[in-house]
Amino acid sequence: MRTNALKRVSNKSKKRAFDERPPIVKGEARERNCSVGRTVDILGDSWTFMILRECLFGARRFETFQSILGLPRGTLATRLKKLTSQGLLRQVQYSDRPVRSEYRLTKMGMDLYPVFLSFIRFGDDWESKKKGPPLQLIHLECGAECVPEVACSHCREAVVINRVSYRDGPGAGTTPLERTARRRRSSDPTRIEKSRPCSVARTLGTIGDYWAFMVMREGFFGVTRFDEIQSNIDIAPNILTDRLNRLVRDNVFDRRKYLDAPERFEYRFTAKGRDLYQTMIAMLRWGDKWLSREEPPLILTHLDCNHDFDPMVVCSKCREPVHARGMKYEMRYPDPLKRKK
Ligand SMILES: [Zn+2]
Ligand SMILES: [Zn+2]
Q: Which DSSP category does 310 fall into?
């Protein structure tokens, strides 16, 4: 399996990996190895996402998460336990008597920061038009007010859809499809935004859930037709119809008829949909780094500079990569963490 994948890398380097369908073994559902898929498995749940967001804002203790997010204690406990076992949080004891511990981000968790920034940028651009962005970001290294941009690690220029080609990396292949609770619709992001205005929540609202995300992923690989999407991600037809309708309603896809009899439609990204691409590849990079043991299933080439690259999130002013400790925020709303501490 592995040797096969490696062999494929060496030939026809610029071929789009997704032209090659994974072999479907009869009676066994399989899915393409994809870091975005694995990342969505972890982040696809809105509560999980919101807990991580609060961690990045400095929350550490159970009671703090609970009072800010207002989610049931049982739900919170389950999510924290899961995030700890997945390696994003670690428990640190802060009191002996009584024994109490708090949650801190690990390196893996901290590295989600650029992914969050890409969510913030998308939400600011597309979902916060009326009220303006909830946070103004200031890059401490250059002192400028900036917006985060997903850029090419080689030339540092912004990476946009259609200017990237793909080929199989050492981690390419397929894995048996697991059927677990993650396929459920995730919690409603509008509920989550009650605690603080948040472009991350707004972006999550657009992305929706695991299935919507997988449908969009296919779109980014150029798959536009119902039947093809359905067979690639093994989704139930009624769920696929539902997600496509929602994505059309949210102005992510345009629906176009390509055949009259029988009537057939294809789904193509709108400008807003194309812009989500940056968010997708920021997640891809995180997933490749932390979930693929340095064996990315896909290798990306930036067509503007003709180099293989890793997506990185940079400051729009100085083009240097941004990290959690190198940014300052100005909140344009009362900070619930200060209010409730
Ligand atoms: Zn480049
Ligand atoms: Zn800067």
A: -
Q: How far is the CA of 167 from the centre of ligand 1 (A)?
A: 16
Which ligand has its closest atom nearest to the C-alpha of 144? 2
Strand 253-259 and strand 264-269: pairing? antiparallel
Task: Supply the range of the domain harboring residue 188.
Answer: 2-10+112-340
Which pLDDT tens digit goes with each residue over 88-119? 999 999 889 888 899 999 999 999 888 888 88
Count other Cβ atoms within 10 Å, centred on residue 170.
17
Query: What is the Å distance from ligand 2's center to 101 Cα?
Result: 36
What pTM value is reported for the model? 0.74
Any domain includes 50: no
Cα(82)–Cα(92) distance, integer angstroms: 16
Nearest ligand by distance to the CA of 300: 1
Ligand closest to Cα of 151 equals: 1
The CATH code of the domain that includes 252 is 1.10.10.10
Q: 156 C-alpha vs ligand 1 centroid, how far in Å?
A: 6
